[in-house]
Amino acid sequence: MAAENWVYMVTAQTPTNIAVIKYWGKRDEVRILPVNDSISVTLDPDHLCTVTTVAVSPSFDRDRMWLNGKEISLSGSRYQNCLREIRSRAGDVEDKEKGVKIGKKDWEKLHLHIASHNNFPTAAGLASSAAGFACLVFSLAKLMNVDEDPSQLSAIARQGSGSACRSLFGGFVEWKMGSKDDGSDSVAVQLTDEKHWDDLVIIIAVVSSRQKETSSTSGMRESVETSLLLQHRAKDVVPKRILQMEEAIKNRDFASFTQLSCADSNQFHAVCLDTSPPIFYMNDTSHRIISLVEKWNRSEGTPQVAYTFDAGPNAVLIAGNRKVAVQLLQGLLYYFPPKSDTDMKSYVVGDNSILKEAGLDGANSVENLQPPPEIKDNIGSQDQKGEVSYFICTRPGRGPVVLPDQTQALLDKKTGLPK
Amino acid sequence: MAAEKWVYMVTAQTPTNIAVIKYWGKRDEVRILPVNDSISVTLDPDHLCTVTTVAVSPAFDRDRMWLNGKEISLSGSRYQNCLREIRGRAGDVEDKEKGIRIEKKDWEKLHLHIASHNNFPTAAGLASSAAGFACLVFSLAKLMNVDEDSSHLSAIARQGSGSACRSLFGGFVKWTMGSKGDGSDSVAVQLADEKHWDDLVIIIAVVSSQQKETSSTSGMRESVETSLLLQHRAKEVVPKRIPQMEEAIKNRDFTSFAQLSCADSNQFHAVCLDTSPPIFYMNDTSHRIISLVEKWNRSEGTPQVAYTFDAGPNAVLISRNRKVAVQLLQGLLYYFPPKSDTDMRSYVVGDHSILKEAGLDGENSVESLQPPPEIKDNIGSQDQKGEVSYFICTRPGRGPVVLPDQTHALLHPETGLPK
């Protein structure tokens, strides 16, 4: 080997994902095995992603991690499980250019530096754990030359955070609950890639929340322990919905996709309400958004927009095509206008080209909006400023990728410390 | 018979009731037969009641009804069913003093005038239909000298409005779902009278609502048609809760009573959320009240207050005794103060004597309130004025009674028209 202070690193980018058939409840808290299957759509990492740089060097004296610039502890079981599982699958690595050669057996004696960064706020409730653990596992697998496919890697990511397993793929993904106790068959598989149904446009309303929310981990445990409806959901309802959703995705059947997504989101929140103490993730703003979408869908005869909510008040709205997305955005901005003097490009982020298509890129363009004809009344008036913090416009996206350009690395290539 | 212009009338007063094990879903829309049993507590008619005067006279040319001063149509099937059923059981009536004699066979040719008045606003969502139909049936039964006990009368009231059957008794009441196709065994029975557990104090928070709510009738029909959790609730959950609640009431076991009431209220709302389109009866204010109560109960170790919500945002809070009720009211007024210059006696109605016990009858007494120690944080700040319109303080109460004093009558003794 060359000088003992070489630093070898890999940087990767991973998307986040949103479940359309929900995971809520574990049958095994340690291995993170769920009580039912779940299906998700991966979001475009151009808009929402985690970037992680992992580095190894003989000069590192212990494993260290920095998340969004702050050093955090790796001592928790979720991190320890992921690190142990990935290390045990490490292979030989050789970088001739740098003169770095690591044998399979060397990895257990080497320490890692990990830096991870989300391009969206953790407080926004946008599933940063999922993207984060997926990125950790994917980037370590690349670093350590692990010879496993994404499904096998997903079983490791799963042990960091259940929904992370679904971020190992782009497009539409299913996390199969599995039946083995060791969880080796509780893995994610890709149903279709991100090009399969690329008409879909996803608009996320980041809803202002005053309440500190119940964490998913404790919430779902309380639901398993106290909800008399959860087992019925897991055993009788979800298995049928999974099959129907697989068909809907395969056939690009938006009407079925919508009916299933909305019903499953609502049932998940119903189980939360059926918990003791009850968990309320959605708030009045979430409900107003649902009313808007439900009324519009019914007035059009065939569903135009699907909605789904995770463990928080944010609305994830999936429009069947761009034209519908533009109308949806106009409706949303009518009912949830920005505070005065807000720059529209900071109120609608992600794919902001939609602003121009919606005629909303000029000054005062929001004041000129007309109420959507189908849903004129009963949603409330156009004065609910501040209920929505901002909107993100995105689409189904690709799975994890390595970022080969050193400028994107989060660790300095010589010191291995955060840049 | 004396002059053809005699008017014979009866005035009665009926309470309203709040279900603690909920009725939500019919197996027969015409006869109003439910999918599960339900249990309720009758509220003190001194505070919330319907008064109905029913009159008969040969001078009346058609059946007419006035509700809260406005004439309404009796042509709907609910009114027609009640009128037909009660007329079918009419007996002989003689008032020697007035020289009136009506025979069983005469009733079908005579017409009725009915005037009904609720002492609480319909818009407050306080189950005015239940009290109203119960009063209609009870007063007509008295007028027509119907020889049936209260449970038999409840089967008639049930056909006007399901929950009306439970207002035929005071105290704690059960509506047995029955199994016969004709509904003759779907009746209310009294579990315990109003004196059995008279320590209980009931505080209702009438929550401001901006939305027009889904009616119970259409809401529960949509739930039956679309909720995959409703049947499981009706077949598996409620049948176990009913005997547990009967035991809790019999034994004055407040801990079990609270656990069951809260769980059942939440499950009812969970089924509403699991409906397509989803129904949201509770709002953020309702949720804040639940959080307040849940935190307090947990900090005390043993439940102090039970909560239950019907098809609207109003909170019905049941305290185990007066001392707890006073503390609860102080906590509620801290978090939901009245707007400035509000007279406390119009902000806390019903049994106002509780204001004095809570030290809240003086000027500026609300500003002097301290936050309850157990629940200092996380409920939100003391600036949510206007979220609660007002509070009603009441208790378990008696069943229907005749009001013999003519001054209570809503119809004029000579014309039979509204006074």
What does this molecule look like?
Chain A is built from ten helices and 19 strands. Chain A is of the alpha+beta class. The first copy, chain A, has two domains: 8-193 and 403-408, Ribosomal Protein S5, domain 2; 201-394, Alpha-Beta Plaits, CATH 3.30.70.890. Chain A has a six-stranded mixed sheet with strand order 8-7-11-6-1-19, covered by helices on one side. A five-stranded mixed sheet of chain A has the order 15-16-14-18-17. In chain A, strands 2-5-12-13 form a four-stranded antiparallel sheet. In chain A, helix 1 packs parallel to helix 2, helix 2 (128-143) crosses helix 3 (150-157) and helix 5 runs antiparallel to helix 6. The longest helix of chain A has 21 residues, at 230-250. Chain A is globular and about 70 Å long. The two termini of chain A are 26 Å apart. The A-B interface holds A 210-212, 228-229, 232-233, 236-237, 259, 262-263, 266-267, 269-271, 273-278, 280, 283-284, 287, 290, 294, 298, 378, 380 and B 210-212, 228-229, 232-233, 236-237, 259, 262-263, 266-267, 269-271, 273-278, 280, 283-284, 287, 290, 294, 298, 378, 380.
Q: What secondary-structure arrangement, pairings included, does this model have?
A:
Two copies of one chain form a homodimer.
Chain A: E1 8-15, E2 17-21, E3 26-28, E4 33-34, E5 38-42, E6 49-57, E7 64-67, E8 70-72, H1 77-87, E9 93-95, E10 100-102, E11 111-118, H2 128-143, H3 150-157, E12 172-175, E13 188-192, E14 201-207, H4 216-226, H5 230-250, H6 254-273, H7 284-300, E15 305-308, E16 315-319, H8 322-335, H9 344-347, E17 348-350, H10 353-357, E18 388-394, E19 401-402
Parallel strand pairs in A: 7-11, 17-18
Antiparallel strand pairs in A: 1-6, 1-19, 2-5, 3-4, 5-12, 6-11, 7-8, 9-10, 12-13, 14-16, 14-18, 15-16
Helix pairs in contact in A: 1-2, 2-3, 5-6
Function (chain B): Performs the first committed step in the biosynthesis of isoprene-containing compounds such as sterols and terpenoids.
Domain Diphosphomevalonate decarboxylase-like N-terminal (chain B): 15-188
Keywords (chain B): ATP-binding, Lipid biosynthesis, Lipid metabolism, Lyase, Nucleotide-binding, Peroxisome, Steroid biosynthesis, Steroid metabolism, Sterol biosynthesis, Sterol metabolism
